[in-house]
Structure formats: C-alpha cells, structure tokens
Amino acid sequence: RGHRGKIGVLAGLDGWKFRRMARPGDQVRLEAELLRLRAGFGRGRLTATIDGQLAASGELSFGLIDRPAGL
C-alpha cells in the first residue's frame, strides 16, 4: 500500500552460486522470498531452477524509488 507507484532498483547481489547454464529453449523458474523490507530498502533470497534442478541461487538487495514520469 505504501509502496504503490514505486519501482524496485537493483542495489546489490550477494552469495550467488551458478550451478547450471540455461540453454536456448530451457524454461527457467524464478522464485523469490522477501527477507526484509524497511524504509524503501529490501533484501530477498532468490533461486532459479531448470527442470526442477537448481541452476542459481543467492541474495539480492534493492531500493524502492518513485516511478519516473513516462514509465
């Protein structure tokens, strides 16, 4: 509710491990778990799987900013 009209911008990537390369035609499933969100700054844990096998995982930090005009 308080974040309506905001967009997320990448602030950082931490602890990423890449275990499998995505190839043309692969369907990559992305899952995210919000770990924390305070004062316009957040952190989440993300995983990417291909055919049920872990392809990549790590944490992502982001900031929330006002949506620029025209977006």
What does this structure look like?
The protein has about 70 residues and is mainly beta. The protein has strands spanning about 5-20, 30-40, 40-50, 55-65. The radius of gyration is 15 Å and the shape is elongated. A four-stranded antiparallel β-sheet has the order 1-4-3-2, with no helix packed on it. It is built from no helices and four strands. About 0% of the residues lie in helices and about 70% in strands. β3 (about 40-50) and β4 (about 55-65) form a beta hairpin.
Mean of pLDDT: 93
Residues in helices, as a percent range: under 10%
From N to C, what is the helix and strand string? Answer: EEEE
Gyration radius, rounded: 15 Å
Order of strands across the biggest sheet? 1-4-3-2
* N-C termini distance: 19 Å
Shape: elongated
Contiguous low-pLDDT stretches (5 residues minimum) are none
Find the count of extended strands (DSSP E, 2+ residues).
Answer: 4
Determine the structural class based on helices, strands and strand pairing.
mainly beta
Approximate strand percentage: over 45%
Q: DSSP helix count? A: 0
Question: Major β-sheet, in short?
Answer: 4 strands, antiparallel
Topology record:
Layout: E1 6-18, E2 28-38, E3 41-50, E4 53-66
Short synopsis of the structure:
The protein is mainly β and 71 residues long.
Descriptive terms for the model:
elongated; single chain; 4-stranded antiparallel β-sheet; mainly beta; 71 residues
